[in-house]
Amino acid sequence: xxAPLLEVKGLRKAYPGVVANDDVxxxxxxxxxxxxxxxxxxxxxxxxxxxxxLVRPDEGSMTFDGAAFAPTSPHEARRTxxxxxxxxxxxxxxxxxxxxxxxxxxxxxxxHTLAQQIREVSETYGLPLNPDRLxxxxxxxxxxxxxxxxxxxxxxxxxxMDEPTSVLTPQEVDILFETLRKLQSEGTSILYISHKxxxxxxxxxxxxxxxxxxxxxxxxxxxxxxxxxxxxxVGEELKVPEARAHRLGEVALKLDNLSVASPSAFGTSLxxxxxxxxxxxVLGVGGVAGNGQDELLGALSGELRAxxxxxxxxxxxxGGLGPVERRALGLLAAPEERLGHAAAPNMSLTENAALSGxxxxxxxxxxxxxxxxxxGFAGEVIKAFDVRTPGTETAARALSGGNLQKFVIGRExxxxxxxxxxxxxxxxxxxxxxxxxxxxLLDLAANGAAVMVISQDLDELMEISTSFAALNEGRLSPxxxxxxxxxxxxxxxxxxxxxxxxxxx
Amino acid sequence: MIRLEKRAAPSRVxxxxxxxxxxxxxxxxxxxxxxxLGTEPVAAIRTIFWDPVFGEFAFYYRGQLLVKAGPLxxxxxxxxxxxxxxIWNIGAEGQYIIGAVCGAAVxxxxxxxxxxxxxFPLMVIAGAVGGVLWAMIPGILRTRFNTNEILVSxxxxxxxxxxxxxxxxxxxxxPDGSGFPGSRNLRQYESAANNELIAGTGMHWGVVAAxxxxxxxxxxxxxxxxxxxxxxxxxxxxxxxxxxxxxxxxILFCLGISGALAGMAGLFEVxxxxxxxxxxFNSNYGFTAIIVAFLGRLHPVGIxxxxxxxxxxxxxxxxxxxxxxxxxxxxxxxxxxxLFFLLGFDVLTNFRVRFGAGAAA
Lengths: 505, 361
Hints:
A: globular
């Protein structure tokens, strides 16, 4: 290999409040399959968006194929020889495959020529696809092939793939890998984004590991173990929790072989999740995003129903009950998405306080809402959790992420739950607000409530959890005491030990 | 360069101001259109907006105002509940027709028995039930099979029109009517008549029902838990589910209420101002009510005012046709402008207009 195909030097991109990428440098050789590794929020997406011309860097430079490269648009990136397959497809379901391919091309050839080309490419690269089929009838894997073929028809020198296997079945993953290896053998470079460590070890020649927007290292995935990669990804300065005085009470919440189908086509169904959550316990549920976190929260909040016996609250089967009944019994939840799920963006804080609090805060009398009480409760939350807002009548969307998050978590905590489930409680929240939220969760548990914290932030989980488990493809690992857990063990729980047993490298 | 910038919170001032601005803009654009049609624009606007209330023949037109506004308000209040929840019942016209047919059928079944305390209330109930049943078709198809309620409810209007024609020619035809299509005149059947309550005002039971509906809808939306859930579902469906709202139950509730009110409006019309079931009984109240609902910002009191305004453009429009010779299509275009400008200016509630180029925020 001579000079690298793409060389990135000192890229920096800051958004208000966060530095998404800081002094990021790496390079990809010709015919190399290079992986970008990192947790959610590590800055992988911003980085590839800069390479693909969707986002312009604040600082730094790139060279591509020996020439300076500063794309201002994806068109320019495509002309230069870069193609990208996004995690979420941009296809029109009502059009057929060839029409969809044509829509994404700079200069599409006539339809019949294009259909012929699609057939040729699909045969050459082992991606079976009929150009005449409607995209609406295709599986997720076949849709991805449409996107890939669209890229290949432009003969790219560099193909960027953003978490391509998240929507694929294992068989489809095998087919995809065959294609990528063939491309590689023809000299195409591939930038592969994933956090599935086994895949990267199977496929990639090099890896750059990002953490909090910075490059923390590079590795040869084939020579490294999944444990080593995981350790680099999550950072080795992980705090080991100090021994806490466990005052665990009786079982407050029990999940018994909970299986729930995901309402979303791209979601992950829960498969036989079992656990016991005791009073005073803080259970941290780790795992890479999209492995069933939303579904677990929904199944506990009551938005998703299960068989009655699968969710047992203080000895009472509640799997078939809805959110209101569950709140009445003391099971409260705070979803990840603040705007549009935990809170209605255009509604005032008073109205949002009533959203989940009307029952336990006794705001409703004969079906009529006492808005004075709702306003009082909103004020109480604002005061207790130091929510910075002009007042209770401000729309939720006018608050900053951290302040709204404090409001949402505070709203549930001040309802004195017996069991509280939170998903990503400090996601996108500034450090001081995050610390306040964590402390509030710990205080809640110290006062005898059972708390489940679903999070992708391992530091956070290690800081507050008394026990730990990880979600992987909708399955929950066995629950372990958080004390004494090593990074290796956590990496294994997250990265899918069952995936490792069949690894053939 | 003009740019739109999202406001941090919806502007309260603009949400009240946009209907006024929209009405003014409609007058200006309508005036231009009338001028192009060769009519003196000021005279046309005056004929439409001023003369019906204050002009020479106002004694006649004023009564018509409530007659026209009553059904519009009654239907629009029901529609607004659904629209607030993001449930789009476009077929109120059909529910209005079926309500009228069912209510009239009950009344005619008792003819010539006289028992007003029994027959008229039964007719009102039958009208409401007819509207509900017709609205349940899109409702159940939506909740069971996830069909689109916009299309189903709209297309059922045309089915309802066929049913109307069939009843006018068949089962409900006046046996003493020498074979002409159309039912007996309910206004001449005392137990079933929905006549003016105070002579010359146009006030009939349907108008009373409209006022009551406005009050109830106001309380429902501002104080009642169900009203809160309706607003929540419209604002953010996921947050509504998190709050514990059952989307299917909400869909059936909203479609049911709007169907009931539209059906009642149909009954009050057929037993009152119209008097009989005829082939062309319906007069687009169900569609115009959609405009009224939005013109009133989906707020019950706003709908009350919007209904009166829309009735005024109807009456004034008819007057303009008669006295100035404006084509009916021009009046419809004029009413269309009203909705167009209203939705257009609505942007200002949530966005701020910024002039000048540059990245200055």
